[in-house]
Design goal:
By secondary structure, this protein is of the alpha/beta class. The chain is about 35% helix and about 20% strand.
């Protein structure tokens, strides 16, 4: 049994802005189910949704401030959660990182710097709980200073740092180093300095005992200039301590056979019932209800990373094909406007909902025939896994976790029962359109299509599988 301190800035269902929260909600639970002793540490944001009792645990004095630590637990699990309670830094409304205009909170460096210091106090048991972890597992830039601070400690726990997205690095002006009282041993080019800026993520990349990322392919990609954001040299230098472990998905939440949020549950043996969800989805979006027309779905942040621009370039030609398209998401205002304009022009083909709605996300996964995910890069991605579990065939670009989880449909993959989607290589609208046309040909071969659906639905994307790999890593440290 390992004692693990899990350090994260978000965890579903407590608070979520993206995939980081899904991982940090599910992985600790899966590790606890393999009978490990897990404590998760997170700031006590105003928007945090706790369902269990919250009690005062202790106070700790850091940087001349008194900070309270509260204790609760993750819903439906025995993972203990420690909340860092410092209202001056964390009692802000809404998003953990940005204000309602989408601008980063001006004191993010201080907020997450303090969070890292408290995590170190907890890791060294200077909060007097008679509990010292074997491993401190940090996630993304917000926790990047933890391995750096721990490197200065005597008799410290092992550290693992997981990169969920290299594009977000926690870069701040050089003057921030003094503001945070950074020890001089850490402030240099081979430390936390990056082009005369303070880089939180470098703390994890340089000082952690092991670095993981959320898919094997992404672990290789971030060692290249295209995906490394200026840190590819450092990652290449540390490559013997770097590996990828695929995220899992929550199979209780995303299960077509038991999902309460869809119109009609179905399994591999009752796949014909899937069409009830298609009709419900078409009705919900006021599209013509027609079981024979292929329905494309997309749930995404509307940003360039997700290839939304490629889809926008394809849509004028897609509307000439026999198809319907539904989209749920928000993001870049320019993309939102272009999509809404197309939906007004082609009301019987295109339907758009700007925003996010969990129940509708489930209905799209169940009701669509085909899921579009042409990302420019995708560290792991979850929707392509949800889609396969729901027998909804994903069209993905061959990158990151998409390359690791979707098997392209070819004569040989159909023969060996692994074909589960359509994969294309180049990040261009031409390549995407070709993949869409190839998918429509397969859709019109009902026996082949059903075979692809069944292959996809039988894949094992469980967290247990991922947790066992993390556990093996912890053992090896």
């Amino acid at each position: 049994m390992k004692k693990i301190l899990f350090v994260t800035s978000e965890a579903h269902p407590l608070i979520k802005t993206g995939g980081l929260a899904d991982v940090c909600g599910s992985l600790p639970k899966a590790l606890a189910e393999l009978s490990n002793d897990i404590k998760l540490i997170i700031p006590n944001y105003q928007a945090l949704k706790t369902t269990e009792n919250v009690r005062f645990l202790c106070s700790v004095r850091v940087d001349n401030r008194n900070i309270n630590i509260l204790e609760t637990r993750m819903p439906d699990s025995n993972v203990i959660v420690w909340l860092i309670d410092y209202p001056a830094y964390y009692n802000y409304p809404g998003n953990p990182y940005v204000d309602e205009k989408g601008e980063p909170w001006p004191n993010n460096a201080e907020r997450f710097g303090l969070f890292c210091r408290i995590a170190v106090e907890a890791a060294m048991d200077r909060i007097n709980q008679d509990w010292k972890p074997d491993v401190v597992h940090c996630n993304d830039w917000q926790s990047g200073l933890v391995p750096a601070f721990l490197s200065l400690e005597h008799d410290r726990p092992s550290t693992v740092f997981t990169i969920h997205n290299m594009a977000y690095q926690g870069l701040f002006p050089a003057g921030t180093a003094a503001l945070l009282n950074l020890p001089s041993q850490l402030w240099h080019l081979a430390g936390l300095e990056f082009h005369e800026m303070l880089s939180f993520i470098k703390g994890g990349l340089i000082y952690a005992d092991h670095i993981t990322t959320v898919s094997p392919t992404y672990a290789l990609e971030i060692q290249t200039p295209e995906f490394g954001y200026g840190l590819e040299g450092l990652l290449d230098h540390r490559k013997e301590y770097l590996g990828g472990i695929l995220n899992g998905i929550d199979l209780d939440q995303w299960n077509s056979g038991t999902d309460p949020l869809i119109a009609q549950p179905y399994t591999t043996t009752t796949l014909y019932k899937k069409h009830f969800n298609k009709s419900a989805l078409q009705s919900r979006f006021a599209l013509p209800v027609n079981d024979r027309i292929p329905l494309f779905g997309l749930i995404s942040r509307l940003v360039e990373q997700k290839g939304i621009d490629l889809i926008l370039e394809c849509l004028p030609e897609m509307v000439n094909l026999n198809m319907q398209f539904v989209l749920l998401g928000n993001g870049d205002k320019g993309f939102e406007k272009q999509l809404q304009k197309l939906a007004l022009e082609y009301p019987d083909k295109i339907a758009i909902l700007i925003g996010y709605d969990e129940a509708l996300a489930h209905l799209i996964e169940a009701g669509a025939d085909i899921f579009l995910m042409p990302s420019r890069f995708e560290p792991c991605g979850l929707n392509q896994m949800y889609s396969q579990r729901y027998g909804t065939i994903p069209i993905v670009r061959k990158t990151g976790g998409l390359a690791d989880t979707v098997t392209d449909t070819l004569p040989e993959t159909l023969a060996n029962y692994t074909a589960s989607g359509i994969v294309f290589n180049e990040a261009s609208s031409g390549a995407l359109l070709e993949a869409i046309k190839r998918t429509l040909i397969l859709y019109n071969l009902p026996e082949t299509w059903k075979k692809m659906q069944l292959n996809a639905m039988k894949k094992d994307f469980s967290w247990k599988h991922s947790a066992e790999q993390y556990l093996a890593l912890y053992e090896s440290l």
